[in-house]
Write a structure and sequence with these properties.
- With about 500 residues, the protein is of the alpha/beta class.
- The protein folds into 2 domains: about 1-250 and about 455-475, Aldehyde Dehydrogenase, Chain A, domain 1, CATH 3.40.605; about 255-440, Aldehyde Dehydrogenase, Chain A, domain 2 (3-Layer(aba) Sandwich).
- The chain is built from 14 helices and 23 strands.
- The protein has helices at about 40-60, 65-80, 80-90, 95-115, 155-165, 180-190, 205-215, 230-240, 265-275, 295-310, 330-345, 380, 400-405, 420-430, and strands spanning about 1-5, 5-10, 10-15, 20-25, 30-35, 125, 130-140, 145, 170-175, 200, 220-225, 245-250, 255-260, 285-290, 345-350, 370, 390-395, 410, 415, 435-440, 455, 460, 475-480.
- The strands form 6 sheets. A 7-stranded mixed beta sheet has the order 15-16-17-14-13-19-20, sandwiched between helices.
- Strand 6 and strand 7 form a beta hairpin.
- It is globular.
- The structure holds NADP nicotinamide-adenine-dinucleotide phosphate (NAP) and magnesium ion.
- Magnesium ion (MG) binds near residues 23, 24, 91 and 178.
- NADP nicotinamide-adenine-dinucleotide phosphate (NAP) binds next to helix 7 and helix 8.
Length: about 500
């Protein structure tokens, strides 16, 4: 069986650690992909040191040349798309169709970043003094840590690593412990694309040890983190104390608002897609359906019908629509929330149990579940479940829908189903989320469009799109005085 290795200073090295963890296929726990040896603090430190050493020469490599390596990576990723999709499904559980979608998104992101390498422009700004002007330049930060979750183990690392490298930073990549195989393949493809020694390093280890060592290393000038709020907020506190830049993308409790004039077929189909796609394990998953009373009975019976008919199974089977949840912890957590929903008095409409059937007894499968009559103060109406569970909250009208939708600590994504332009634009204006969708699911995004949330969901700049490189660069302002004389008066 494969023993996964770290990538430090251009070499694949096996950890000396005796702490190990198996990488298990969540659709069939007998299927073990490999074993991770949890990197030690020393190993994590040596990765940061290698990145620190490599920074000077990478920084002075012209941006378009850095971009050429990222472009080569994009082509290699494209060639490897099918292979890596299969690894992703086997490691994380999502369906192959979903894995292929994630791979395409990653290819698009890498292509986008390669293009940005020729657009690292600044501004020229006229001065209020004669024969003076100013300009700005974007400069890299130094060593950047990319700390990523298991739910998009290819796309999220790529949307952090590609812009970080394009901007001229060197990287220490700490993926989630649950998804080492996809992380390794990403780094192998960068290696094949010609990334110089030390510029990209991979540490496979636990967050609390290797991760902690990396993010607290004084040479790490920035940390880009995606994951849970509990980890993200602590990480932000620790890093900001030493003045390191931090970007955190964290939890969500994404609402869809469905008004009485909505196209109900479309609303049901899109809500099912948003709630149960990727087994509900997307940060942008639809977890609250806020439905006006007049159409609530109809909506609930249709979404329940749709949920019951979804084909659950191994994501590697092309017939499967809903794969397993990622591991035993997530499995226990989702089942726990289903119990909490029952105990708090929400009405279980469908699901709520383990699916029965051939091939379903060896994986972490949960039935797509719908709760009706969820109250805004119930835990299943407030807390992120990160599984195939939808809470329906009934409201009397648009105003109450807005109030309920915004009554959340989170603010990642949202959507509305209606054909009334006035209420749609009021929703767009008032909804407290970083992204919103009109007549389409809360999920999904594009490589060249900024991504991220507000409130407790997001700290720091948006990722991807026009803002992708902002986090990974500092702006330097240069004042130019070509009078050749002592400055007259002061600039205020
Ligand atoms: P997590 O437990 O917070 O882990 C995220 C990463 O942080 C992992 O690599 C983890 O390593 C590492 N980590 C844990 N403790 C650490 C520490 N003390 N110091 C440094 N690193 C540490 O999150 P997850 O369970 O993998 O992912 C699910 C969460 O991600 C959900 O809350 C979801 O909403 C969120 N998410 C948000 C977005 C978004 O864009 N807003 C996108 C996707 C996912 P280990 O794996 O070794 O613990
Ligand atoms: Mg696994």
């Amino acid at each position: 069986m494969a023993i996964y290795r770290n990538f430090i200073n251009g070499e694949w090295v096996e950890s000396i650690s005796s702490k190990t963890a198996d990488n298990i296929n969540p659709a069939n726990t007998d299927d073990v992909l490999g074993t991770i040896k949890q990197a030690t603090r020393d190993e994590a430190r040596s990765a940061v040191e290698a990145a620190s050493e490599a920074f000077r020469s990478w920084r002075s490599t012209p941006a378009p040349q850095r971009g050429r390596i990222v472009a080569r990576f994009a082509r290699l990723l494209e060639e490897d798309k099918e292979n890596l999709s299969q690894i992703l499904t086997r490691e994380e559980g999502k369906t192959v169709a979903e894995s292929r979608g994630e791979l395409q998104r990653s290819i698009n992101v890498a292509d986008f970043c390669a293009g940005e390498s020729r657009r690292m422009t600044g501004e020229t700004i006229p001065s209020e003094l004669p024969l003076n002007f100013a300009y700005t330049i974007k400069q890299p930060l130094g060593v950047v840590a990319c700390v990523t979750p298991w739910n998009f183990p290819v796309a999220i690392p790529v949307w952090k690593i590609a812009p970080a490298l394009t901007a001229g930073n060197t990287v220490v990549f700490k993926p989630a412990s649950l998804t080492p195989a996809t992380a390794i393949r990403i780094v192998e493809l960068f290696e094949e694309a010609g990334i110089p020694r030390g510029v990209l390093n991979l540490i496979l280890g636990s967050g609390s040890e290797a991760g902690d060592e990396i993010i607290n290393h004084p040479a790490v000038r920035a940390v880009s983190f995606t994951g849970s709020n509990s980890v993200g907020v602590r990480l932000y506190e620790e890093c900001s104390r030493r003045g390191a830049k931090v970007q955190c993308e964290m939890g969500g409790k994404n609402p869809v608002v469905i008004l009485e004039d909505a196209d109900l077929d479309l609303a049901v189909e899109s809500t099912a897609q948003g709630a149960f796609g990727s087994t509900g394990q997307r940060c942008t998953a639809t977890s609250r359906a806020i439905v006006v009373n007049e159409i609530a009975d109809e909506f609930v019976s249709r979404i329940a019908e749709r949920a019951k008919n979804l084909r659950i199974g191994d994501g590697a089977d092309t017939q499967t629509e809903v794969g397993p949840v990622v591991d035993s912890n997530q499995f226990k957590s989702v089942l726990h929330y289903i119990n909490v929903g029952r105990e708090d008095g929400a009405e279980l409409v469908c699901g709520g149990d383990l699916p029965r059937g051939a091939g379903l007894n060896k994986g972490y499968f949960v039935q797509p579940t719908v709760f009706d009559k969820v109250k805004p103060d119930m835990r299943i109406g407030r807390e992120e479940i990160f599984g195939p569970v939808l809470s329906v909250l009934r409201v009397k009208d648009f105003d109450e829908a807005m109030q309920v939708a915004n009554d959340s600590e989170y603010g990642l994504s949202s959507s509305i189903f209606s054909n009334d332009a006035a209420r749609i634009f009021r929703f767009v204006d008032e909804i407290e989320t970083g992204m919103t969708h009109i007549n389409s699911p809360t999920t999904g995004g594009e490589a060249h469009i900024p991504f991220g949330g507000i409130k407790s969901t997001g700290i720091g700049e948006r990722e991807q799109g026009s803002t992708a490189l902002d986090f990974y660069t500092e702006l330097k302002v240069v004042y130019v005085d070509y009078t050749g004389r002592k400055r007259e008066g002061n600039l205020y």
